[in-house]
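Suppose you are handed a protein chain with no further information: no name, no annotation, nothing but its sequence. What can you learn? This example shows the usual starting point.
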Amino acid sequence: MTAIVVIIVSGALIIGAVWGIYGNLTRRLEGFLVALAGGALLVSALLELIQPALEKNSIPITLSIVFIGALVFTILDYLVKEKWGSKSGGGLLAAITLDGIPENLAMGVALIGAGPLSVAALSGSIFLSNLPEAAGGAKEMVEDSNSKKKVIWLWIGTALILSASALLGHYLLADVSKEYLNYIKCFAGGAVVASLALEVFPKAFKEDKYLKGLATAIGLVMALFLNTLGE
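A reasonable first move is to predict its three-dimensional structure. Written in structure tokens, the prediction is:
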């Protein structure tokens, strides 16, 4: 069941890439979907990744690790965008996977000792995030390279990498104590929050300045509902 959840979530990258390249994705619709996914991910980061540690672990350590996660993501995002160049081969792959690795790692950790319904909010939010992100990214990449086949294979490779990160997080950390698992989730949660501020909401706001507020609220409500399924 764990593998199925991981495949579905990472498969959203491939579905989104195909949609962006061969479908009709307007920039306004793309921005709306990105904002919706951002609202869902915000709830999931707080409730699924950070809140459990606040309830069970040291609060100062928990909050410090959340900040460290955000700091690490910010530094990596800066290096990818400003130093390595997101249009180069390795830099482009790094830019695509930067958001996904913390999210998928967190999802793999969250699946430890829990059924699929208990992580419905997190996996559903990541699916919603991956779909428009892949669609918009693939569309822009095709415009730059004019090679649809190359772009599709790049996204397939990225989906495999993210699937592997989730499965590794799930199986390699299965014997880690609950306390440390909570800290790992907090680190991922901080990275997700930073990615929302740096990547998700600015992109959505660029396409439409007003409807994206409603889209974010819709995503938030959807994530809150999904979260109740695991209770």
